[in-house]
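Troubleshooting log. The previous structure file for this entry was overwritten by mistake, so regenerating from the original sequence record. Sequence copied from the archived sheet and checked twice against the printout by T.R.
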Amino acid sequence: MALLSGNVIGNLSGKLGNLSARTVNGQTIMAARPSSFNASQDTASLEVRAKFAVTANFAKNVMSLSTLTEIWKKVKDSGISVFNAIFKSNFAYSSTEKPTEQNIIAPVGFALAVTAAMVEADKITATLPALNTASVFGADEVNLSANALVCYYDPSIETDDPFKIITLSKEVAAFNFGQSYSLQLDYNVLQEAVAAKYQHSILYLIVASKSADGKVVQNSATYTKLS
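Regenerated output below.
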């Protein structure tokens, strides 16, 4: 490794031949790159890498929904990213092939006792009980946010990806937490195309209460259903 200061050609970063460069505090650090790297191919290592890839895919999709990102921001440990918080909470539950029904899209919250839920070809439907039977909602909690992931797996064509995840959300203004609610989340054309390629699915659903200015106040635990 070498340090360059007062570099007349400016700060460097990237790769040059068998060298790599990065700039830290105004100094360019040059280091030799390894000529080769052989990742371990033993069974345990392969399984860890497969679970890593599955969990990273899952966490990325959770973060694509802004409400879920806000929820995780509120509970994550300081010094780690939202992505890492989601990843850490889910890695143990992922399989080497796909997420499982034990994976979660939100940290612990009030129980979401869905009385009926269906994953259809073009939408998700679910009947939510009166939420005030599961938690106490304050006067500032006036809106509801419903957020879902659907993991499709077991493709009809073997060459397709082993699983695909779609994400959906819905904001309901002036929500009545004392009444049951019929939720419907409609697919777009691309999501319908994904659904048509797979034989089975896992639904992950949470709801969150929001204030009038759109801030999350509290959230449910993750409801899951295999189809």
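The longest helix spans residues 43-63. Archived copy saved in two places this time.
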